[in-house]
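Running this now, will post back.
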Amino acid sequence: MSPLFDGPADRDTLADAAPPGTAAAGDYPSTDDPLAEMERLIASGAREAAFAHAAAEAATWTAGRRTPGLAAALGRCLIDMGEPARAAALIEPLVAEGSAGTGALTTMARALGLCGRHQEALSLLNEASFLDGRSTEVLLALGLARLTADDIPRAIGDFERVLRLATGESDTDINARAEAHFRLGECWASMDEVARAARHFEAAQAHDPADLRGATIRLAEIAAAGPPKRASAAYVRALFDGYAPRYDTHMTGALAYRGPDILRDVATRAGLSASEQYAGIDLGCGTGLSGAAFRAFCATLTGVDLSPRMVAVAEASGHYDRVIAGDLLAFLAAETESSCTLAIACDTLIYLGDLAALFSGLARVLARGGWFVFSTEKSDAAEGGYAIGPTRRFRHTAAYLQDMAAAHGFEIGAIETAILRTEKRVAVESFVGVARRR
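Update: finished.
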């Protein structure tokens, strides 16, 4: 999926995020004040105040202060918030007067593409390529536009040109090569050229050992490799950092997400009681939707999430006593033995394939009789108990979940099938489970 031209992305992709290696909102220290305030407002969840701040900043720009870098950075913030039309309106005056640089042009093209104005976006990208035909940022954006428009041959040409230009060992060139190889993999995969796609995804991995783009999952998806044990931390962190500003509105609105409420209801039927006031941990807490659903059950509640931006929003929600930015397995390893009585993992297992390390960590941290409530996407049959689904998330079988629980000292109290959300108007079947530590 293209970060330039797709509509609101499902939460498993980087579709609405800038390509890895390109400038992000925080990369403009020379215009730090207005940008820092924008980031602060986004982190606190003050959407309307953030919109007003961007509009007020634009209204006060003079010829001396209206810098393309600042306009592009604020525009990216607005896109992250799911407001591409506002981003386009912010940058449009620079385009109209001819003072937009390539960064502002590519940001506005991305905004226009997200608004469905693909031809206008392509026109801007062509203009940017005339301004700097050797800019790998522009060529990557142009290739993505053409890939989205199914102009595969010219998209391949753009990405191949990036590889010819980005031959150095700077971070910029390495990132450009990784991105070009990843997108070439997508080009060839779209034409069912699995061997060629696999070669480029493997090359993307070589240039991006942290697997920021999820090439390992793409290799499994096209059946060129077996499923990994988990999605890479860098991939998940980048995904949710880009998604955080609009996560709640997109999930509960466009995707009709009801996961935390369904999880709470299933757990309550299994015997979880608000009168017990548990010591709770929310694994993969996101922005705090599960915290809102389970806070009344907890005397204390700790959230942990890989994404610093998600953590900032969760802290602002007021549902948690503490929120930690980090890997959940490392968090479990550092927690005091038998210190918790309730663990929540709502739509977290979909980024983990092999669950042995998770159940092992929970067996150490949860006191005897402690509860583990979780959800994952449903698989009816998968070799080894888990597989990559068509949305690039892990799915698990009921038998695998039961086996993992039994092997680590848990007793399954319930595994129910439920619809936690829809994606592209298709219901996503999930398992909702409740287990207790023996």
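The first helix runs from residue 32 to 43. More later if anyone needs it.
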